Amino acid sequence: MSMLIGPVKVNCVKDAELKIGKSGNAYVKFSVAYNERVKDDAGNWGPLMWEDAKNEYDSVGEYHDVTVFAREDNPGIVDQAAELKKGDFIEITGKRSLRGYLRKDGSRGTASDIVVDAIKVINTRSDSATSTASAPEVVEVSAAPF
């Protein structure tokens, strides 16, 4: 089962890897994290930390594996995604699906995968190091290629 998401702002937690599939088509894989922000007792915004969680249902952060496929109608999205680095702050739109897996210890886990339709770069690591940031480029794709 998949669900449409976005736009949602996320942090890249793994450098993008450009890959070539068995069919010869290019695609990009990387990982992102979404952190829910809450107000503290003083009214300041900040991320919810594990030590602040009141119970096991409080959201602390979510990690997602992301895939961006090349498209004939918009091949630029793969080039854009291939440039993403750990620490980049982006906005994505796409389809999210959950899959189960077995851990090494035999217990079951759930992983979240997102196939991205659009990426908007908000801030890169290099933008943080300099005071001049270029305007973000938005590349949209109408649908996933499968």
**Morphology:** globular
Helix run count: 2
As for the CATH topology, it is OB fold (Dihydrolipoamide Acetyltransferase, E2P)
Share of β-strand residues: over 45%
**Number of self-contained structural domains:** 1
Relative helix content: under 10%
Series of secondary-structure elements, N-terminal to C-terminal: EEEEEHEEHE
Distance between the termini: 15 Å
Query: What structural category do the secondary elements indicate?
Result: mainly beta
User: At CATH's second level, what is the architecture?
Assistant: Beta Barrel
Taking the sheet with the most strands, its summary is:
5 strands, mixed, barrel
Task: Report the CATH C-level class.
Answer: Mainly Beta
DSSP, total strands: 8
In round numbers, the mean pLDDT is 76
CATH superfamily: Nucleic acid-binding proteins
Rg calculated over all Cα atoms: 17 Å
Low-pLDDT sequence parts = 130-146
Taking strands numbered 1, 2, ... along the chain, how are they ordered across the largest sheet? 1-2-5-7-6
